[in-house]
Amino acid sequence: MQRTRLSTLIDDLGDQLSLWLVNPWRRVSLVLISLLLGYFFAVSLASIAGQSAVQDTVASAFVVVAAELASWLVYSRRWRDPELLRKVPKPLWIDCVNSAKIGATYAFCVEAFKLGS
């Protein structure tokens, strides 16, 4: 790939962002924001899909597949170094995906309790 001004700018922005995210408080705040966004999107999906009650099975199938893919990605063995048998730290986006999945699962449980009462 050629080294243009745009590619240089994007590389520099990515480097600055990764240095900004080294701070553990910023990392925790992004994970918490992902948890709340997962909760928000799950509540929105439950209210939108449940309004017409036509595509409930399709929406629930997509939710289950997305949750299983997120679990497979987060809990796979690729985050272990096979030669040294030590854990390699997970990237931030993996933690954010897992946090959003946890928030969505919690929201669906809360919605189920609301429907059951």
Radius of gyration based on Cα positions:
19 Å
Question: What is the domain tally?
Answer: 1
Kindly report how far apart the N and C termini lie.
Answer: 59 Å
How much helix is in the residues? over 70%
Provide the spatial order of strands within the biggest beta sheet.
Answer: 1-2
Quickly count the helices: 4
> Biggest β-sheet: count, sense, barrel?
2 strands, antiparallel
Instruction: Report the strand count.
Output: 2
Mean pLDDT: 84
Structural class: mainly alpha
**What sequence of helices (H) and strands (E) makes up the elements?**
HHHEEH
Percent of residues in β-strands: under 5%
What does the overall shape look like? elongated
Topology (SSEs and partners):
Elements: H1 5-20, H2 24-52, H3 56-75, E1 80-81, E2 86-87, H4 92-116
Antiparallel strand pairs: 1-2
